[in-house]
Amino acid sequence: MLSGGSARLVARSSPVFLFVWVLNVAIIKHISQAMVSDLAGVTDFYYWKGIPVARTWPRKSTLPPTAAMLGARNSFVQSRVDLRSVSGAAREAWALYSVGKKQAWLDYYTSVYMRFWKDYKQYPPVVTDFTFFLE
């Protein structure tokens, strides 16, 4: 990882490294299975916009979750349960509908599901009623 002083210096010289400093991630050359298995639980490896990066392993909060956090978690879990029953035609419809958007269809599906739950405190009928896509 970059230290605070060198990160600030690099951040001024290149906008790419500005994200490294703000997000506390390090750009790495590649991700190997050996790296992932050796540093599991210590370092988190993933691809950010196609760029291999590493960061310190996220720590679980010691504070109890709020009611809103529990509701959002339950909504996310329910979105995944409902996703299992999505037909191939509905998946294709979600994929076609998300063309031109910045998100993949699964991310778009999840964001619609979560946004509806946040606004109305119930699971979205359009997302769960897959006959909507067959019309």
* Helix content range: 40-55%
- Tell me the series of helices and strands, N- to C-terminal: HHEHEEHHHH
Structural class: mainly alpha
Could you describe the largest sheet, including whether it forms a barrel? 3 strands, antiparallel
Morphology: extended
Q: Give the count of helical stretches.
A: 7
Count of folded domains? 2
Q: What is the end-to-end distance? A: 52 Å
pLDDT below 50 for ≥5 consecutive residues: which ranges?
1-22
DSSP, total strands: 3
- Across the major sheet, the strand order is 1-3-2
In quaternary terms, these chains amount to single chain
Nearest-integer average pLDDT:
75
Give me the Rg, rounded.
20 Å
Beta-strand percent range: 5-15%
Notable traits:
extended, 3 strands, mainly alpha, disordered N terminus, three-stranded antiparallel beta sheet, about 140 residues
Sum this structure up briefly.
The protein has helices spanning 4-13, 15-23, 33-38, 67-84, 88-97, 105-120, 125-128; strands spanning 26-27, 43-48, 51-56. The chain has 135 residues and is mostly helical.
Description:
This protein has helices at 4-13, 15-23, 33-38, 67-84, 88-97, 105-120, 125-128; strands spanning 26-27, 43-48, 51-56. The protein has 135 residues and is mostly helical. It folds into 2 domains: 4-56, no CATH class; 67-134, no CATH class. Strands 1-3-2 form a 3-stranded antiparallel β-sheet, with no helix packed on it. α1 (4-13) packs antiparallel against α2 (15-23) and α4 (67-84) packs across α6 (105-120).
